[in-house]
Amino acid sequence: MNDASAIVRNVSDTARWVAYFRACETLRPDALFRDPLAERLAGEQGFRIAATLLDGNKHEWAWVARTYLFDQFIAKQVEKGARLVLNLAAGLDARPYRMEVPAELRWVEVDFPEIISYKEQILSSETPRCRLERVGLDLSDVDARRRLFSELSEQAENVVIASEGLLIYFTAEQVGSLARDLAHPAHFKSWVIDLASPGQLKLMQRTTGRQLSEAGAAFQFAPPELANFFVPFGWEPRDVQGLLKTAAQFNRPPAELLALLPEPKNIGANYPWTGVCLLEKR
Fold it and tell me: Is this prediction's pTM over 0.85?
């Protein structure tokens, strides 16, 4: 096993790595967001991972752009009337503590019990800005997740789902099953996801993805249809924003990537693209 596979113990450890990037962005004078809890959440393990996965750290701009876009999409859905945010594979996300949201907003985080326990320990002295709840659940447990989705749909008339950094670790069959389950509850209205093209997946698998795969956190999902993959499962793409385009807007991407802009109108399977998409119930 190489250093990366020894440091990254499982897929949950990638949440510590992402928290490290949020901590770095927070220190910038021109930060797109500020997350004062990120350094604590990343912990020593998050910083060790960042020091080991050097190829991945070259793409800090992409992680920052992704976080920013999820912030924007979630905030807009709340402004439009969402009363419950369901954050699947919430990891070490700290949005309920840092975003300007109504105090009466209900925010439900779902992740493996062990990462929920770690997060509650780190944040035990902090107060969220809304009604925050946490559920320890393995999303691969289909019956359990369906029960949870049904219960939450009965408790709120407008639910927005967020699944940042989740789908890429699933197979296409697993993503389709989850999409179908999320489309079934009547009050699940919108879903914010991140996606990669097959061309981008190949690049990722040759660098950081190869290292993470050895640690049991393989990148898998990158549909050639991009957001249209979700249409047969009951979801319609409403807004799609590329990470590189967003990063360029705020002077973040490396100069060598600017040649990829502007993005083509129809992104082909081989084009290296990542983005954040807003899906709405059909």
Answer: yes
